[in-house]
């Protein structure tokens, strides 16, 4: 009997997990709600593979414990694998799979909603209503169709974002190191990021995080953007230099930001604090308290459809690896 052990399992994942178990009686499934650490790694003893999801880094120590237990296969339930060190994975001979497409719509819809909420100044209206102020002025909004949206990254999520924005009548421009033939045909690519920064009223990030693009949105990039630009980040927090963003917001160069991810978010996200004033990260507190910034706790992915697909695909992939198959969502060099 094959055995898979899963980490970080939440209550909302359990119904999909039970369904998968029923459909796969040849696999014994164990799970914990703990994330994968050097301590919790021991819980996978006797398993052939591990399924996991977390936003914090996977440590070499945790991977070493799994390796010593004879485990070779790790399947993450999410898209981004930037919290793994590939050298560690390869040193211990792990094969890693991700879920490249669990529901790009979940994240794309969230990004477009963040744009719309900023354009219609929703946090300001909410504050006014809270104060008993049911007036219009001066909280006048802007329409999507007047906006040029610059989409950075035209992969699965970027392309769905573009499709939704088209419905709202936005002008769309895009930048990607790889040109998707469909988007190319529509003539939407600009050649450089500078060109995108120069033209876009709203900039939305949909690229993976690499060492090479950490803090790609920095002082220099913001300087090249239009005055009054809106910045949306539903990709990875480390793509934006938070100090540069705060500076841009302070000067008015940046009119607003929609942030589902923020550099160092693990110091705050995923926990319940007694109030916004008590969160232990001064920069996130600064951003979250602004009425022209909307912060969400890395929740863009969090829909019923996405959760079901994340469980099903990750467990299917792990089982395939254990059976000696090579699923096409292997992400490291042990392919
Ligand atoms: P994808 O792999 O389908 O697309 C990424 C695109 O970025 C590709 O077209 C690639 O060519 C392009 N790219 C890579 N490096 C680039 C660079 N330096 N400059 C320009 N383009 C570059 O990925 P996806 O499914 O669209 O997801 C994008 C990212 O969104 C993920 O890597 C992850 O970090 C993030 N994500 C966030 C959430 C969330 O809940 N907030 C959920 C899922 C994914
Ligand atoms: C991803 O799928 O990469 C995400 O960012 C979702 C999150 C639960 C890790």
Explain what the structure shows.
With 335 residues, this protein is an alpha/beta fold. It has 12 helices and 11 strands. The strands form 2 sheets. The chain has a 6-stranded parallel beta sheet with strand order 7-6-8-9-10-11, with helices on both faces. α4 crosses α6. The longest helix is centred in the last third of the chain and has 19 residues. The two termini are 25 Å apart. 38% of the residues are buried. The protein binds nicotinamide-adenine-dinucleotide and 2-OXO-4-methylpentanoic acid. Nicotinamide-adenine-dinucleotide binds next to α4 and α6.
Q: Name the structural class.
A: alpha/beta
Would you report the number of β strands? 11
Computed CA radius of gyration, to the nearest angstrom: 21 Å
> Strand content of the residues, in percent?
5-15%
Give the ligands present: nicotinamide-adenine-dinucleotide, 2-OXO-4-methylpentanoic acid
Q: Outline the biggest β-sheet.
A: 6 strands, parallel
What level of helicity do the residues show? Answer: 25-40%
- Please work out how many helical segments DSSP would assign: 12
- Give the averaged pLDDT, no decimals: 97
Order of helices and strands: EHEEHEHEHHEHEHHEHEHEHEH
Spatial order of strands in the largest sheet: 7-6-8-9-10-11
- C-alpha end-to-end distance: 25 Å
> Which of globular, elongated, flat, extended, rod-shaped describes the shape?
globular
Unreliable spans? none
